[in-house]
C-alpha cells in the first residue's frame, strides 16, 4: 500500500510540475479541495469531454445535448428530494479533530479484509503455480470463506443502518469493528450526524427563506426540467436521451485524495427516457455500453469492475458503479442508475405541469422512466493521469517519466523540433506546425538537446515528436518518434497530416 501511496504522491507532483493541475489560489496558500486545470490539464480535460460527447451524442441519433443554468428555481431541489435526503453521515474523532464519512470508514475497513483475501489468493498462486485454480481456492479455503462471511455480515449491517437512518447503530457498527482514526489511531468517536451537502446562497438583494437558492449539487435536474421542451422541439420518440456536461457543487466536509473528491467539480451525465417496465433491459444495456467506452482507452481491463450499491438512492430501483483502480484502490468512477419516474413525477407534482409522453403506439400518456449514466469528469481525468504515469528504466541505463495517455486524449498531439537553431531548420519546422495546427494541438520547441526535448514531451504525454534535420532541407522528409516504443521512422512532410491524423483519431476509440 505504501508503494501505491508513493505513486499517487508522484502523480500529484507530476501534475503540478508539468502543467496539468495547480492548487487553486496558491499565491494565497490555496483553498482546501479546489484545484485549477493548467495548460496541459485543460487540453486533456477537453479531449475527455469530446470523447464522451462524441460517444453519447454524435454516435446516437436519439440522444441530444443540453447546457442548463447552474442556478435553478429552489422548488427544483424540493421536488428532487435533495432538500430532505441529500445528506452524508459524518463522524468526528475527538482526539484528531478530523471528520469522516461514516460509510467510507466502514467501506475502507471492508477493503482491508478484501486485501487480506487477495493476499491469501496470491500466496496460493505462488505455492501451486500453474496448477492453481483461483475459483476453487476462493470457494474452499477456510480463511477466505471466514473473511467473505465477515464482509457479508458487515455489508448487511451497513445497508440496514443506512436504509433505516439508524445513526446510533452506525456508530455502534464503527465501534464494534474496532475502526480507528487514521490520524490519531484512537477510537474516541462522536455521535454520527447527518449533514446536507448543498451550498445555499441568496438571490437578489433581499435576504430571507424565499430568496434562498442553491448551487446545483448535480446536473441531472437541469435535464429533467427541460425534458418536455426538448421532447417537443426535437420531436423525440421514446427511448431518447439528453446529455449534458457541467459544473456541480457539494459542500463536502471530507474532501480528499487530490481531485477525486472536490467541492466544485464537473459531471458528464446522460438521462435516457424510456417506457416504464423496460428499465432493466436498458439498465443492462447502458452498463455494458459504458464499460466498453472505458475499456476502449486501453488503460487496462483489470482496472475496472462493477460494484452494486449496498444502499439505493432515494430515486433508484437499481444502481451500479463502474469502479476504477486508482493508486489508492478501487473507487467509483461512473454510476449507472435506474431512476424510475421519481424525478419527472416529483417535478410534475411540485410544478403542476404535465410532464407526460404521449405514446402513439399504445395511444396512452404516461410519465417516462429514466436510466442515468453519470461520470465525474475530474475522476475520469485522474483515472487517465494515474494509469498513464510510468517510470521506465531504459536499455542504456537511463530513466524516463512518461505519460502513456491514449493518443486521442493527449494534450499535445505532436511536437515539432528543429535539430539545431540555425541553417533554416527552425523556419522549416514552423512551416510544418502551420500545416498541422488546424487539426491538432502542436508544440514547437528548440531549447536544449533533442534528447532532453524528447523527455519533456514524454512527461506531458505527447504521442509523436517530429524532428527536422539537415536532410529535411534536401528531400522534405522528417523523423517521427513514437512516444511509447521510442521507435523512429523517416516520412515525407507531405504525408504528415495523414499519418498524425490517423494515429490520434478519436474514431479509433469509437468504432
TrEMBL record:
Assigned EC number: 6.1.1.14
Top EC class for this record: ligase
Gene Ontology CC: cytoplasm; extracellular exosome; microvesicle
Keyword Thylakoid recorded: no
Places the protein is found: Cytoplasm
A GO molecular-function annotation: ATP binding
Chief place where the protein resides: cytoplasm
Record's keyword annotation contains ATP-binding: yes
Family designation: Belongs to the class-II aminoacyl-tRNA synthetase family.
Subunit-level organization: Homodimer.
Record protein name field: Glycine--tRNA ligase
Amino acid at each position: 500500500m505504501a508503494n501505491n501511496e508513493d505513486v499517487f504522491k508522484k502523480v500529484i507532483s507530476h501534475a503540478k510540475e508539468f502543467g496539468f493541475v495547480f492548487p487553486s489560489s496558491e499565491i494565497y496558500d490555496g483553498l482546501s479541495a479546489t484545484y485549477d486545470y493548467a495548460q496541459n490539464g485543460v487540453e486533456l480535460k477537453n479531449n475527455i469531454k469530446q470523447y464522451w460527447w462524441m460517444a453519447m451524442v454524435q454516435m446516437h441519433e436519439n440522444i441530444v445535448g443540453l447546457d442548463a443554468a447552474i442556478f435553478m428555481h429552489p422548488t427544483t431541489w424540493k421536488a428532487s428530494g435533495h432538500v430532505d435526503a441529500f445528506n452524508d453521515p459524518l463522524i468526528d474523532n475527538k482526539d484528531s479533530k478530523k471528520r469522516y464519512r461514516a460509510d467510507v470508514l466502514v467501506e475502507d475497513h471492508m477493503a482491508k479484509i478484501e486485501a487480506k483475501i487477495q493476499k491469501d489468493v496470491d500466496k496460493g498462486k505462488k505455492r501451486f503455480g500453474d496448477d492453481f485454480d483461483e475459483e476453487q481456492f476462493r470457494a474452499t479455503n477456510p480463511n477466505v470463506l471466514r473473511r467473505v462471511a465477515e464482509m457479508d455480515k458487515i455489508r448487511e449491517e451497513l445497508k440496514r443502518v443506512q436504509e433505516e437512518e439508524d445513526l446510533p447503530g452506525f456508530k455502534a457498527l464503527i465501534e464494534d469493528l474496532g475502526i480507528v482514526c487514521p490520524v490519531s489511531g484512537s477510537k474516541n468517536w462522536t455521535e454520527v450526524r447527518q449533514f446536507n451537502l448543498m451550498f445555499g446562497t441568496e438571490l437578489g438583494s433581499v435576504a430571507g427563506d424565499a430568496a434562498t437558492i442553491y448551487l446545483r449539487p448535480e446536473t441531472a435536474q437541469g435535464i429533467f426540467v427541460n425534458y418536455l421542451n426538448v421532447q417537443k422541439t426535437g420531436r423525440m420518440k421514446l427511448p431518447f436521451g439528453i446529455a449534458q456536461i457541467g459544473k456541480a457543487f457539494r459542500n463536502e466536509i471530507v474532501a480528499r485524495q487530490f481531485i477525486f473528491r472536490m467541492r466544485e467539480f464537473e459531471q458528464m451525465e446522460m438521462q435516457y427516457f424510456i417506457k416504464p417496465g423496460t428499465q432493466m433491459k436498458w439498465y443492462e444495456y447502458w452498463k455494458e455500453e459504458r464499460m466498453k467506452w472505458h475499456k476502449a482507452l486501453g488503460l487496462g481491463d483489470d482496472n475496472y469492475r462493477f460494484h452494486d450499491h449496498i444502499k439505493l438512492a432515494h430515486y433508484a430501483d437499481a444502481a451500479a458503479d463502474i469502479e476504477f483502480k486508482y493508486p489508492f484502490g478501487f473507487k467509483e468512477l461512473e454510476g449507472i442508475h435506474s431512476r424510475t419516474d421519481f424525478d419527472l413525477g416529483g417535478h410534475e407534482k411540485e410544478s403542476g405541469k404535465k410532464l407526460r409522453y404521449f405514446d402513439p403506439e399504445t395511444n396512452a400518456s404516461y410519465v417516462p422512466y429514466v436510466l442515468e449514466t453519470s461520470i465525474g469528469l475530474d475522476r475520469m481525468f485522474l483515472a487517465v493521469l494515474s494509469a498513464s504515469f510510468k517510470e521506465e528504466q531504459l536499455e542504456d541505463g537511463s530513466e524516463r517519466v512518461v505519460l502513456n495517455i491514449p493518443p486521442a486524449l493527449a494534450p499535445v498531439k505532436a511536437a515539432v523540433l528543429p535539430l539545431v537553431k540555425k541553417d533554416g531548420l527552425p523556419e522549416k519546422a514552423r512551416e510544418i506546425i502551420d500545416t498541422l495546427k488546424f487539426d491538432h494541438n502542436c508544440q514547437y520547441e528548440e531549447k536544449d538537446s533533442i534528447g532532453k526535448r524528447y523527455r519533456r514531451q514524454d512527461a506531458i504525454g505527447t504521442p509523436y515528436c517530429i524532428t527536422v534535420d539537415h536532410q529535411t532541407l534536401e528531400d522534405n522528409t522528417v523523423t517521427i518518434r513514437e512516444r511509447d516504443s521510442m521507435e523512429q521512422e523517416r516520412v515525407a512532410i507531405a504525408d504528415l497530416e495523414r499519418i498524425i491524423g490517423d494515429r490520434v483519431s478519436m474514431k479509433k476509440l469509437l468504432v
